[in-house]
Design goal:
Blueprint (H helix, E strand, L loop, with lengths): L2 H23 L9 H25 L10
Length: 69
């Protein structure tokens, strides 16, 4: 997995958290989707992305090639 894919996963998690926060602020429920579930899923995706990014940082051979790998 390339570093850009890990950063995309982190960005997707951030967007899900943002949507969950907006849903929670305006007290809107769309079927099973509400603010709490949006925040939970978003944080779960962020944790996965963070673990992948840490793994990528630890296993990078050169610090100069980190973003190119």
């Amino acid at each position: 997995m390339k570093t850009k894919h890990t950063l995309i996963i982190l960005l997707i998690g951030f967007i899900i958290i943002l949507i969950g926060a907006v849903l929670k602020i305006i007290h809107l429920e769309i079927g099973p989707l509400n603010g709490n579930s949006g925040l939970t899923v978003g944080i779960f995706v962020e944790v996965i992305g963070g673990v992948l990014l840490l793994f990528k940082l630890i296993t990078a051979k050169k610090s100069n090639d980190f973003l190119n790998s």
